[in-house]
Design goal:
Blueprint lengths: L1 H8 L3 H12 L4 E3 L9 E2 L2 E4 L4
Parallel strand pairs: 1-3
Antiparallel strand pairs: 2-3
Helix pairs in contact: 1-2
C-alpha cells in the first residue's frame, strides 16, 4: 500500500509508510507537519498540520 502513495502522490517512502499505517489503523485524521497541505485527503484520511 505504501508504494501506491509514493507513486500516486509523490510522497517519500517513509511518509507513505506513515500514511499507510494510519489507514490500516482506521484513523480519520493524521496530524503531520510538512507531509502534505492541510486539509488534503488520501483515501479518506484527512491530513492536518493542526486540529481546527
Amino acid at each position: 500500500m505504501a508504494i501506491t502513495f509514493t507513486d500516486g502522490y509523490g510522497l517519500s517512502y517513509y511518509d507513505s509508510l506513515i500514511v499507510a499505517a494510519a489507514l490500516e489503523a482506521d484513523c480519520d485524521t493524521l496530524l503531520a507537519e510538512d507531509l502534505l497541505r492541510t486539509g488534503q485527503r488520501l483515501e479518506g484520511l484527512l491530513v492536518a498540520n493542526r486540529l481546527v
